[in-house]
User: Fold this.
Amino acid sequence: MKKPEIPINESERLKALNEYRILGTKPEENYDDITKIASLTCGTPIALLSLVDSNRQWFKAKVGIEAEETVRDWSFCAHAIHSSEPLIVEDALKDERFFDNPLVRGEPKIRLYAGFPLQNDENLRIGTLCVIDREPHGLSDTQFNIMQSLSRQAVAFLELRKRSINLIESFCSHTDEGSFISTCSYCRKAKDTEGHWQHLDQYLSTRTNLNFSHGICDACIEEHFPDVLEVWETEKKSKDLQNPTP
Assistant:
């Protein structure tokens, strides 16, 4: 087994990961939805949103496995973060880097691994969105493109989380009780002290006892992920043909 090398920018990469303050947090619907869509789109039993920490890979969202993390030395994702290009391994048993990996020889018996790096604006890769199968195969062009879109969406959620945390800290350090909060009359975002606009639900969650959950509504699926709809509609038509209504 070839252990993954440590990136030359490892300290900066770990700093970027820690700024999201997400390691060890509870499951969240918006990240869970991304792995569900990835699994359905690629037809794989396993999909993971994997974050590569200093000595482990930890799963923020997962489909098809119970494990919360694995050691970094076994991690396919720790190999994938060395490049901005996706890492596609169609048959791990035929790859000299992975053929004797414990995750290949034992559960979950990885054959296909397709990892799409989670890369921020500073080209720092903190983990991957990946799909895994126990049978060797590749991805179609449509599946590949959807996975790239989903990985970008995952990074967008992480960036929104970081900005929200920064906003909370800004409010916590603010001592002027008489200040007004500036909100947009159209999109309902709130402006922080640095002039950055944040979603109002994040602002309210810091000022009230209200709790919020997030997903992807039908309209946004249609607007931002038309390829996903196309895959779903094709699958539905196929099922209807196989099981016609009497």
